[in-house]
Write a structure and sequence with these properties.
By secondary structure, this protein is an alpha/beta fold. The chain has helices spanning about 5-15, 55-70, 130-145, 175-185, 195-210, 215, 235-250, 305-310, 315-320, and strands at about 20-30, 40-45, 50, 75-80, 100-105, 110-120, 125-130, 145-150, 165-170, 190-195, 220, 270-275, 280-285, 290-295, 295-300. The protein has three domains: about 5-120, no CATH class; about 125-250, 3-Layer(aba) Sandwich (Rossmann fold); about 270-320, no CATH class. The radius of gyration is 25 Å and the shape is elongated.
Length: about 325
């Protein structure tokens, strides 16, 4: 993919509401295969589209990009040896806010500076129901730039939300049970029911009797919104939006996490290992030139490092343990 193809792909991912990181080479020292201005997209799953560098740089950029997506904070990645960044970096340490140094000492002897920035989709709010409160909540959320969908209870289904969505059921006693059941099936990051605690208990009790899994029902917040005391219908919208903003700011609203404090689903991050020759972090799988030595498997960034280890394993193991 050319740099312009990468930007087109970035636009398509943005339209689909998928998070990703955009990596750009801002400086290089030859003979690195990465070129200044080269770009690549890294998805949350670790897929890379585009070109950022060779076998040494790519896995490090993917690893750091996934972290950038998780944290939502950009960083400048320095890839090379301490000598190539003399005065700017210390091995294994952040050189300053927003900068990270990763030592790479492969045969290419090149160096890169790669700027990685997160591109995160606008928060998705689904409101089920029709009322002055719903209209106010929708207007306020759109003012914040959120992607907001308002649906009547009969038009809403689990397909209208996903694990990153926030769902507010405001059906006011007209089909609450069906709307909550559909919303819970989508396992959204937030699910709130507008109504009293007594009404909420009745709805959840009914759904329990229907056989809805308790784990899904435990995700329902009722009453939805911060407790602001006696409020008007439109002020309830403010209370709900305030709760959503508070939860998002605290990092509680992430895919796979119930806003009630449930455990986050473990990220499927592949196991990693350290190349004993160059010190680079690599993926511990068949793609990283595995070699068994004295009952332990070692992984390498390239065939050259693997060959160097084979020729004198004792020397490299001694260096890696110093």
């Amino acid at each position: 993919m050319s740099s312009f193809d990468v930007l087109e792909e970035a636009g398509e991912l943005t339209r689909r509401g998928q998070p990703f990181a955009l990596a750009t080479v801002v400086w290089r020292q030859g003979p690195s295969s990465g070129q200044q201005g080269s770009r690549a997209i890294i998805t949350a799953e670790g897929d890379l589209h585009g070109w950022i560098g060779g076998a040494c740089a790519e896995p490090v950029v993917i690893r750091e990009a996934r972290q950038v997506i998780t944290e939502g904070v950009p960083r400048l990645l320095l890839l090379g040896t301490p000598e190539q960044f003399a005065g700017r970096a210390q091995v294994g340490a952040a050189v300053s806010d927003g900068m990270t140094f990763v030592p790479i000492a492969c045969q290419s002897e090149g160096a890169l500076e790669v700027y990685i920035e997160p591109v995160l989709p606008a928060p998705h709010l689904v409101i089920v129901g029709r009322s002055p409160m719903v209209a106010t909540l929708a207007d306020l959320s759109r003012t914040l730039g959120w992607r907001t969908t308002v649906l009547d209870r009969g038009a809403f289904s689990a397909a209208d939300a996903d694990e990153s969505s926030m769902v507010v059921v405001a059906t006011q006693g007209h089909g609450d049970e069906e709307a909550v059941e559909q919303a819970a099936a989508a396992r959204p990051a937030y699910l709130g029911l507008v109504g009293s605690a007594k009404r909420g208990a009745a709805v959840l009790g009914y759904l329990t009797d229907r056989g809805v899994p308790q784990e899904r029902l435990d995700r329902v917040r009722v009453p939805a919104g911060l407790d602001l005391g006696r409020t008007s219908h439109r002020e309830i919208a403010v209370a709900i939006l305030a709760e959503l903003v508070q939860l998002r700011a605290s990092g509680a609203l992430v895919p796979g996490t119930a806003a009630t404090g449930g455990a986050r689903v473990a990220e499927r991050t592949p196991a990693q290992a350290t190349d004993p020759v160059c010190g680079m972090t690599v993926t511990a799988d068949a793609s990283s030139y595995p070699l068994e030595h004295e009952g332990e498997t070692y992984y390498f960034c390239c065939a050259g490092c693997r060959r160097s280890f084979q020729e004198n394993p004792a020397a490299h193991l001694k260096e890696s343990r110093c």
